[in-house]
Every structure is written in structure tokens, then in C-alpha cells.
Amino acid sequence: MKMERLIGILSILLQRERVTAPELAEQFEVSRRTIQRDIESLCRAGIPIATAQGAGGGISIMEGYRVDRTVLTAPEMQAILAGLRSLDSVSGTRRYAQLMEKLSARTGGLVPGGAHMLIDLSSWYKTSLPPKIELIQSAIEQHRTIRFTYFSPKGESVRTVEPCYLVFPWSAWYVWGWCRSREDFRLFKLNRMTDLTTGESFPPRAAPLPDLEPERIFPAKYQVTVLFDPSCRWRLVEEYGADRFTAEPDGRLHFTGGFPDADSVLSWVLTFGDKAELVEPEELREQLGKLAETLAHRYRRD
Asked: Which residues pair with 175 in a beta bridge?
């Protein structure tokens, strides 16, 4: 894809004094015209690239602007490689690994051999999620709308969106784009989508980066206090950090935190079974008591 190719071309230019268009075309398995368009894209992005015709000519970064080829150390290149490999874990392909292999073959060791960091961004939804990511990524590059049925706590709706970014916050994939129904930028979780298709082309619009601060996306409506059995310490540390609770004299763990809605509080507390006691707020404590009575009645054997 174009972005991987641009990264590859720039990496080669940083490592070599000069390279020809036919060499790049062969390496990336595209036409010379495609390489020429890629060079134009890099120039528009502010990379000072010079081209020279004839014998001894080729493509190079302009003299005086060359970045020292040691600007990226081996550990830094390892971090980049780990990040690229993580993208392969999403799609289930070796696209980015093959890109790095191509770079290694021609740049005299640009990519170090030993990997010490492995990042796996794949999810439990290995069958349904990668096709969505591929379709949305293609729609973003081609400036085409996407249409899908969306399921949220407020109900089911059909949306048409001008996609801008694929983002990965909170261990899940989302698309950020202009929702034509709401006439505003919105964030949509991919796992809540069905019947995803691409639509017509649209003129690109200036898109702000999504503000992914949890306090804005999930504003806390309830401040809760919960007492936990000491055996729950590992979950509290994993989910909220060791500084979010204190130990009571009787050994129980005193937790306080904010939640966006009542369902989030009740469902979370219930996952701890009888090892958690919701203390505050009183209204949610009463709701949890009624819910417990309903469940007890439902599962009581006559």
C-alpha cells in the first residue's frame, strides 16, 4: 500500500547517497510511474528530494538536508519494527514484515536482526475484525464513505460516515470520522458494526484529531465506593492500578472510582460475585440489592 511504500522509499534515501527509479520500482514491485508519483508525494510532504537525469543520476535527498544515517539507532529501529509487526497481527498478513525484509535486503542492515519486543494487537474477533479494518483503511485512502448498522446502548441505527482515522484506544479498534446523520465527528467501535460496506467518494474535509481522554469520552456520572475481599487485589491492580485502593483494618480493600452510568457500575461489581460490596452511592446499592433478589428468584429451585 502507498503509505508503507513511502516509508520504505524514505528509509532507503536516508541510507543511500543515490538510488534510481528502476531500482525502487523493482524493489517495491510497482511501475516507474508509481515511483515518480511517490517521489512527488514525499516532496509535497516537505522532504527535499532531488532528481538527476542521465548517467550517474538518480534520486537523492538534497545536499545539506541529509539526515545523519545514525539518527535512528538499532534499538530505535527495533521499536519501529515491533510497531510494524504489530500491524500484521491486526490483519493476519505479513505485509509489514515483507516491507521490512525488502528494506533489509538492500540497505546494508537498516533493520537489525534480533527482536526483543513483540506486540500483538489481534483480538478475539480474528474472523470478523481484520476484514473491517482492511475495508475502512481502503476507504480512508480512497476518500470513500462507509455505511454500517451500529449497535449502542441507545439502540440500533444505520450510519453513513466519512472515515478519517483508525484508532486503537482502550484495547479496541474504532473509526473516527464525520457522521452524516449527526453532522459531526464521531467515534465508532468496529465490533459494534454489522453490514459494513463502502459508498460514494467524498471531498476530504479538515478533520481534527480525536480527543481520546477517558474523562471526555466516558464522563463520570457516579463516584462509587466498593469494599473488596483481599483475593481481588490482583484485578484491582490490573484494571485500575495499585494506587486506587487502600487496605482496611479488617483486610478488605477500599476502592473509589468514577463510572459513566449505572449499568457499568452494577455489571462490574457483579463480576466479583460475593467478594465485593457496593457501599456508595446508596441509590445504586439499592438497585444492586433488587437485582440480586431478582436473580435469586430466577435461579431458585422450587
From this structure: 166, 188
Fold of domain 129-211: SH3 type barrels. (2.30.30)
Query: Cα(184)–Cα(156) distance, rounded to whole angstroms?
Result: 18
Place of cell 541510507: 15
Q: What is the pTM of this model?
A: 0.63
Q: Which CATH class is domain 2-106?
A: mainly alpha
| Residue ranges matching CATH 1.10.10.10 in the chain | 2-106
Amino acid present at 223:
Q
Looking at the DSSP bridge assignments, the partners of residue 158 are: 149
Residue 68, helix vs strand vs coil:
coil
CATH 2.30.30 domain position(s) in the chain: 129-211
**Could you report the per-residue pLDDT of 78-125, keeping only the tens digit for each?**
666 666 666 666 666 666 666 665 555 444 444 444 556 666 666 666
User: How much is the CA Rg of the chain, to the nearest whole Å?
Assistant: 26
How many CA within 13 A on the CB side of residue 75?
0
